[in-house]
Each structure stands twice: as C-alpha cells, then as structure tokens.
Specification:
Elements: H1 3-13, H2 17-39, H3 42-59, H4 70-89, H5 92-95, H6 111-120, H7 125-135, H8 141-148, H9 152-170
Helix pairs in contact: 1-2, 2-3, 2-4, 3-4, 4-8, 7-9, 8-9
GO molecular function: DNA binding; sigma factor activity
Domain RNA polymerase sigma factor 70 region 4 type: 115-166
Organism: Jeotgalibacillus campisalis
C-alpha cells in the first residue's frame, strides 16, 4: 500500500471526511474501469460506480485495513451491488447487448480487447468475475475468494473452467 494511501486511510478512520473524499477520488477511475469490464455497459458501470462510492462512504466505519486493501474492499462492495442489482432486476440480457459495447479500454480502442470481450460475454458471471479479477487486475486467489465470498478452491475451479471456456470460444482450445 502506498504511503500516501495509508496516511489518507488513517486520517479517514480518525474521522477526517476530506481524507476519505480524497481517497475515494483517487480510486474512482480504478473502480469505474473494473465495473466497466464487469458490466460491459458504460452507463451501468457509471451508475454502479456512484452507488459503490456512496456505499463506501456509508460503510467506511466497517473497513478494516488489516483484513483487505482499500481497493479490494471497494471492488467487493461494487461486485456485490452489481450482483444484487442483476438478481433484483433480471437485466442480464441488457448487459450483453452488442450495440451497447462502444467504450475504450485504457486510453485507446483495442480491437483485440473487443474480441476478448465478445468471448467474455459468453461466460457466466461466476466465471467472468474471477477471470477479470485475476488476469486483468492481478488479484490473488485469497483476494478473489474474499471479493466473491467463496472458498479458494472454488475460485481456482472457476478460473480453470472460465479460462477453458474462453480458449474454446477464441478457438485456442
């Protein structure tokens, strides 16, 4: 964890709202890009990012830096909000609509990413989430286990199955 981030976390825990605001602001783009990859729908990712930030503010008193990195905690909240919303509204088909997929990865259009995205869209959420967390964000099995609320063995199994399905979809299988 960066020294500045650690300092902001400690100040926010001590009740400094400005430090919490700065911390959330510094991680906003990271959170948005994660949720964009997860939802595959820019406006939904933006809305979900806002909801996650609000939830982080409301529940910051529950954050324990000894249990998880701040970004892991944010991603866990965002992931859970997304899954809850999907269950509640049953909107999975809308997230997969090809016409809604016109966004940039990083700073440029990436044709290869669009091909991979098409393959990712074929995966069930239980496989897509661990694949994105592991291979795009480099999270450990333990962190993915915490975020997805499943045992580490389940994370490994889902990653293996998800990657196998991706390879088949991409013709590398």
């Amino acid at each position: 964890m960066k020294e500045r981030e650690q300092e902001l976390i400690q100040q926010a825990i001590a009740g400094n709202d400005e430090s919490l605001a700065m911390l959330l602001h510094e991680h906003y783009q990271f959170l948005f890009l994660y949720l964009l990859k997860l939802t595959l729908y820019p406006s939904e990712a933006e809305e979900l990012t806002q909801d996650t930030i609000v939830r982080c503010i409301e529940r910051f008193h529950q954050y324990n830096p000894k249990k998880a990195a701040f970004t892991t905690w944010m991603i866990q909240i965002g992931t859970n909000l997304w899954l809850d919303k999907k269950r509640r509204k049953k909107r999975e088909k809308q997230y997969m609509n090809k016409q809604q997929l016109s966004w940039k990865i990083g700073q440029r259009e990436d044709e290869q990413w669009l091909i991979i995205t098409e393959a990712l869209k074929t995966l069930k959420d239980t496989y897509r989430i661990p694949v994105i967390l592991k291979h795009y964000y480099g999270y450990s099995y333990e962190e993915i286990s915490l975020i997805c609320r499943v045992p580490i063995g389940t994370v490994k199994s889902r990653l293996n199955s998800g990657l196998k399905k991706l390879r088949e979809e991409l013709g590398d299988g």
